[in-house]
Design brief:
Elements lengths: L6 H16 L6 H5 L7 H7 L2 H21 L7 H18 L1 H7 L9 H20 L9 H19 L12 H11 L4 H11 L12
């Protein structure tokens, strides 16, 4: 008889695995369940084994990113909103650096590719609004501009959240996006104001100034 899956146990194991990655603990079948009150069989019941757990971890990274995007307010300034999405992408990577690494491990399949692709769609929609509102040139491809914006955020995240550069490097993200959006046709003065509204002080170390 098939074992009943308990969503709470699944969440517990995913959260524990993410915490172990964060703390640099060896992630094995036995170490995962140690102290949780569940047996190793639970990993097979909920994930089919450790390979399935890795898939779930990769999916969890995109799930948290989607939740972060969904929490953002949509305004009448598409350039500000597109900037805020890139900043949220970086914030997610900074908050969950180990999940961020797993998100882009192409050797691990995703549980739901469509749900992961949907995160990019947030940026595509903002870029499309910017084009339709006349901020970007009429011939601008929203997918291309969204991808370029994502690449800007991904490069910074890879070098700061999971790489060697100091957090203050993120301060340059606003100027990178400004150059990208001006190149796509936005007016320089208006673009700078919109990007400034959408870009939080990511370069500050946590707790700085307090």
């Amino acid at each position: 008889m098939a074992r009943t899956r308990d969503p709470a146990v699944r969440t517990l194991l995913v959260e524990r695995a993410a915490r172990m990655l964060r703390d640099r603990e060896p992630l094995t079948l036995r170490s995962l369940v140690a102290g949780t009150g569940v047996s190793t069989m639970a990993v097979y019941t909920h994930f089919g084994g450790m390979d399935g757990l890795w898939m779930a971890l990769r999916q969890e990274g995109f799930t948290r990113l989607a939740a972060r995007f969904a929490a953002l307010a949509t305004t009448d300034d598409a350039v500000r909103d597109l900037t805020a999405l890139v900043a949220a992408y970086l914030g997610n990577a900074l908050d969950h650096p180990d999940l961020y690494r797993v998100m882009f491990d192409a050797s691990v399949e995703l549980e739901d590719l469509t749900a992961a692709d949907a995160t990019l769609e947030y940026l595509v929609q903002a870029a499309r609004r910017g084009r339709d509102d006349g901020r970007f040139r009429r011939g601008t491809d929203p997918l291309e501009l969204a991808t370029q914006s994502w690449v800007t955020g991904h490069g910074l995240a890879s070098l700061v959240a999971t790489g060697p550069l100091p957090r203050r490097t993120l301060d340059g993200g606003a100027s990178m996006l400004t150059a990208l959006f001006i190149g796509a046709g936005d007016r320089p003065d208006r673009c700078r104001a919109s990007v400034e509204r959408g870009w939080p002080p990511l370069g500050e170390e946590p707790g700085a100034g307090h």
